[in-house]
Amino acid sequence: MGRELADRYASARRVFDEANDALDFDLRALCWEGPQHELDRTANTQPALLTASIAALRAAEDASGGLDAPAVVLGHSLGEFSALVAAGALTLRDAVRLVRQRGELMQAADPSGGMLAVLGLDASVVGSAIAQTGLVVANDNAPGQVVVSGPRADFDRATAALRDAGAKRVIPLRTSAAFHSPAMRQVAPELARALAETTFAPLRHPVIANVDAQAHEHAAEFASLLEKQVWSPVQWVACMRRAAGEGAAAFVEFGPGNVLTGLAKRILPEARTANVSDVKTLADALALLREGGNA
Questions:
Q1: What is the pTM of this model?
Q2: With 80 as the cut, is the pLDDT of residue 147 above it?
Q3: Catalytic residue, candidates 53, 76, 176, 180
Q4: Is the Cβ–Cβ distance between 94 and 198 less than 8 Å?
Q5: Catalytic: 180?
Q6: Model confidence over 80-118: pLDDT tens digits?
Q7: Which CATH number does the domain 113-182 belong to among 3.40.50.300, 3.30.70.250, 3.40.640.10, 3.30.1130.10?
Q8: Is the CATH code 3.40.366.10 the one for domain 3-108+187-290?
């Protein structure tokens, strides 16, 4: 997670240094060496992903000599914190501390809940199919790819209903609780206190929020938006379409993997996409970034 970029670019290396100082433990070693079971803990995964994502962004800025201003910035769930760092509203130090606490709260939530990935149905059909269960739509990720969240006791009933509605596959996910569902309301008060104590600087670029798929220009709005996000569905399809409506024609994903890049191609087939996770993908992304029109 970010090691190759940090070895090549001092700016990326400094991101890991700053995250280590902010958290007072060796996040860098965890990202680069594991062990995997520790990295998989929600309280560790969240700051690790945020740090690796910002390291990738800083490496791109370093390699390019400065990126053009994006039309908008957005991130999926935890990635919204990364987006706010990229847009200048949060310092990296504050962001990693926030997501560390967010992860601890989510990890400690009621373990009787979980999540299912549903393939082959759109969110409206999924919502109708599970209406009589305790599950809700948690992530509208792409056409034909939806995640639902709720009590594990209702998984069998929900799975049967989804298959009856035409789902190609229903896959249990490795999560410790029912994220982005009403079960996470128990997390909200403590998270809201942490957010209220955090300084949000003015945004340099508009940020599209997960909960309403609107482009926001005032950073102060994100204290309440991020609190609501933890127990509300991630409207990723609507967010991406909003970004296109704001003028984004190309999308670059910063951080490990290329999941969002794949979703972008499904939501906006005409969009140009790239991801930055290592030196090779950075070189490919820079060619796209030089063309302009990126989000």
A1: 0.95
A2: yes
A3: 180
A4: yes
A5: yes
A6: 999 999 999 999 999 999 999 999 999 898 889 999 999
A7: 3.30.70.250
A8: yes
